[in-house]
Amino acid sequence: MSLVEELEAMANAVCLAETEEIDNPIYRWQSLFGCSAPEALDKIIIFRLSPRELIISDSHWEMVRDQKEQEGFDREAYEYFCTIAAHKSHHSSAITEEEKQRLQATTFLLKLEGPLQSVDAVVQAANMAAIQETVMASDSLGQSSSFCKVNGLEKMAIETFLSESNIHSVFRPTFIRISVARKELSTNSIYPTLGVDSTMPQHRLSNDTDNPQPAQGEYPVWYFFYGTLAESETLAELLGTEPIYHDAKIRGGVLESWGNYKALVNDPSERNVVHGKAFLVASEEDEEALRLYETEAYEI
């Protein structure tokens, strides 16, 4: 298709209101796929302009037509449903251990709505033990919504749960990815400590009653900064207050180049000294701002 023909096709798609009752398919797609009217229109236009990955034959449609029309589908919406179902089947194939670790390290905000309007419903769908935190957010119109945090594996579990549900298979949850530095401090070892293998006997806790410090939710807590976070202008902009630094140095690590950035990694020689700044992080809110700044590329 030439550029002119493609533009003409797009114009025709946008002008659907002149050739058919566009409100009817928009309403249908809203109901079936759990999206807003503008989102439904976008999906319809993109689907009509894109090469069909899956085409429902006349004989197949005649076999399922009565049932699907009772469920609210027409042939086009049913083809779209089958296409996205095929995509989900492909993505749900076995994943490697490396992919699993990557998914566990990613964080999403899930909007509490529809069949996932409560924390209990999300816990059931994702097969989670519990949800630790919910947050409130407002859109540009001032309408508030509740969100909870899930990781990439839990996101996949929720999508699989919905796709296999006879009732909720057409609902599309709202996920917003957030890139935040990972913080998973162990409760029964000194892991992760820079330059120290916590599995070695000499680095293990002496007894079960020992509590490694700092704890996961302990505040205030000291941080060692290097690079841009050791610059007062950067930290002041992030936290909204003038930072108080203390000169500091650490052993067991070495600074290495990572593209245009620096990364503090374990020092195999265990002799290197890195100079930087110590800063007392006062609260979880301040820590969250720092973790968002560093993104999931880093770990605390």
Automatic annotation (TrEMBL):
What superkingdom does the record give? Eukaryota
Q: Where is the Gamma-glutamylcyclotransferase AIG2-like domain?
A: 223-299
Cited InterPro entries:
AIG2-like_dom, GGCT-like, GGCT-like_sf
Name of this chain's protein? Gamma-glutamylcyclotransferase AIG2-like domain-containing protein
Per its UniProt record, what SUPFAM superfamilies does this chain match? Gamma-glutamyl cyclotransferase-like
**Xref: Pfam families:** GGACT (PF06094)
Checking CDD domains in the record gives: GGCT_like (cd06661)
What organism does this protein naturally occur in? Fusarium duplospermum
